[in-house]
Amino acid sequence: xxxxxxxxxxxxxxxxxxxxxxxxxxxxxxxxxxxxxxxxxxxxxxxxxxxxxxxxxxxxxxxxxxxxxxxxxxxxxxxxxxxxxxxxxxxxxxxxxxxxxxxxxxxxxxxxxxxxxxxxxxxxxxxxxxxxxxxxxxxxxxxxxxxxxxxxxxxxxxxxxxxxxxxxxxxxxxxxxxxxxxxxxxxxxxxxxxxxxxxxxxxxxxxxxxxxxxxxxxxxxxxxx
Amino acid sequence: xxxxxxxxxxxxxxxxxxxxxxxxxxxxxxxxxxxxxxxxxxxxxxxxxxxxxxxxxxxxxxxxxxxxxxxxxxxxxxxxxxxxxxxxxxxxxxxxxxxxxxxxxxxxxxxxxxxxxxxxxxxxxxxxxxxxxxxxxxxxxxxxxxxxxxxxxxxxxxxxxxxxxxxxxxxxxxxxxxxxxxxxxxxxxxxxxxxxxxxxxxxxxxxxxxxxxxxxxxxxxxxxxxxxxxxxxxxxxxxxxxxxxxxxxxxxxxxxxxxxxxxxxxxxxxxxxxxxxxxxxxxxxxxxxxxxxxxxxxxxxxxxxxxxxxxxxxxxxxxxxxxxxxxxxxxxxxxxxxxxxxxxxxxxxxxxxxxxxxxxxxxxxxxxxxxxxxxxxxxxxxxxxxxxxxxxxxxxxxxxxxxxxxxxxxxxxxxxxxxxxxxxxxxxxxxxxxxxxxxxxxxxxxxxxxxxxxxxxxxxxxxxxxxxxxxxxxxxxxxx
Lengths: 225, 480
Fold this sequence. Notes:
- By secondary structure, chain A is α/β, with parallel strands linked by helices.
- Chain A has one domain: Rossmann fold (3-Layer(aba) Sandwich), CATH 3.40.50.
- Chain A has helices at residues 2-30, 44-50, 65-82, 102-105, 116-129, 144-148, 153-165, 200-205, and strands at 38-39, 53-54, 57-63, 86-90, 108-112, 134-138, 168-173, 183-187, 209-214, 219-224.
- In chain A, helix 5 (116-129) packs parallel to helix 7 (153-165).
- Chain A starts with a helix and ends with a strand.
- Chain B is α+β, with helices and mostly antiparallel strands.
- Chain B folds into 4 domains: 2-157, 2-Layer Sandwich (Alpha-Beta Plaits); 160-216, DNA polymerase, domain 1 (Orthogonal Bundle); 231-331 and 343-352, Dna Ligase, domain 1 (2-Layer Sandwich); 401-478, no CATH class.
- Chain B has helices spanning 10-16, 42-46, 55-61, 72-87, 114-127, 140-148, 159-164, 175-183, 189-194, 197-204, 206-216, 246-265, 298-310, 345-359; strands at 2-6, 25-28, 37-40, 66-69, 93-97, 100-104, 133-137, 153-155, 231-237, 268-277, 285-295, 320-329, 364-369, 378-381, 401-402, 408-409, 411-414, 417-421, 425-438, 446-455, 460-467, 470-478.
- In chain B, strands 15, 16, 17, 18, 19, 20, 21 and 22 form an 8-stranded antiparallel β-sheet that branches. In chain B, strands 5-6-1-7-8 form a 5-stranded mixed β-sheet.
- The chains are: A alpha/beta, B alpha+beta.
- At the A-B interface, helix 3, helix 4, strand 5, helix 5 and helix 8 of A face helix 14, strand 13, strand 15, strand 19 and strand 22 of B.
């Protein structure tokens, strides 16, 4: 009788320890990550609220193509300002070099592909390498038929790779498709022809974003304008 | 003093480099119409195999004889290595002939033991797999004659008595001159030098004058110096065309180890590697790999090469392999305070090689605008770490997503502006035309009229009229 009571007490204590540990981890994960663990995006609202893009995590930016291009523009500008290098894996071969500043592109490694599977393989290589702190995988122009052929377990595998290498991976997509993305950024706004006369930097700063961060307990959702 | 570093049977030694041939071996000129032996090694000579025999005759005398063809690539690589070895003993070296280097040893420290120095040269050559002879003498030409009589080292302090005892054959006179001299009873160099100079030249011509000048030692010959090598080479010519990469990888592993040791000996590092694969018919395949962070680590070199070979497909099978290494000083790099360099540039170099194997050479790099205003033109540069802060934030409008398929569309105009686009629908707003043209001074002149259009569903495109009525989709800003 005494022995069974002792075992029960032990179980309760262990359960309480686990609960406390889980609560502590959840609290830590819910807080904005420290600056050293994040890559700034150049979108002020996002950087202030979430600290930027989390290193060692997959971030999915889904929304309209114009918003995806502006988000990439902000990332490229930040890369130049921070004097890093970044990679763009262009899964649909749509990047137009003449539309960007030549000096900004000096810090951009462009990987051209017309196949989603090759783009994923290229991402895997760059993430395992770990030399570039930021890798952008642009799937916004990839045909739906090719996207359907991407197995979902790929994203979990890439998540494990980035956890080890500490690289921030951003996937640009038209709609949410990355299984288990730690951070989801959504931007659905559409821009008209009048936007062609506005500075690109101002367009990026004015993006309306919705950010959802996955923690151990729940998803934290923030809206930023 | 001068030294002569000589590799006897140089062409045979070069052909046998990287091959394990322990016994009798002979070199045959396979490209000559009458394939006769050119050079034989000492073991073969003991079996009565001589230069001039046909391979069949030689094999009849010595069944275990290994007959190897000439390997020009290896000869060039060995000559470069010989010069490199010689430069390790003196900065003033002349590449006198294939397999012969003459060293000006006048700068060597006083009191040095010439015998020991010459033995050290032989030992260095032996470490590279060469059998060498070294002659040291006060005159450059006497040093060469001393090397011819060396076993394997010959130090001559007084050139005149040494040369006097040599047979005339060592000077290699022409057969006609040799016959005349023999007729006169002149058999040694000493007897030749005793002949009156003026009468000799008058009767036997300039050849005799040159021979006399060479052995008299009265004039000091100026060496034609070679510059220290900046490119280290190893090569191997296969007996037959190879079909798999295994032999290549096996040799490249040995090459990288050997070249790395040579670079390290001079405190140098490699800044680039050039792999050349000669094929039977057609131009050689050559590829240069720049090493992001110059290093002398053979493992790094080998990984770069093996990654490339894994994805390489050649239309013809290679018959040889050459690896040359561009040497550079291991200079440190001082980064700007705010500059963040790559953590491991060499690992990144390997990743780039893997990416190139995956998406092709033109699929990876740093995009840069081309020297033209032609829409869609760009050039791809090799990745290199950028320095300094870029000029950014000047661009206006949304970035274009280029459609490189040159998709044709039908466009209806209203008041000379696009009003309706086939498969997309009516155009609600448009901006343009933006007219561009160029290269009209050449045959490939181009002209294009671009429009940015907004469609009823909110999509934004750039369309272009390339010729009258030939409309294409240039790209998209917004897709619905």
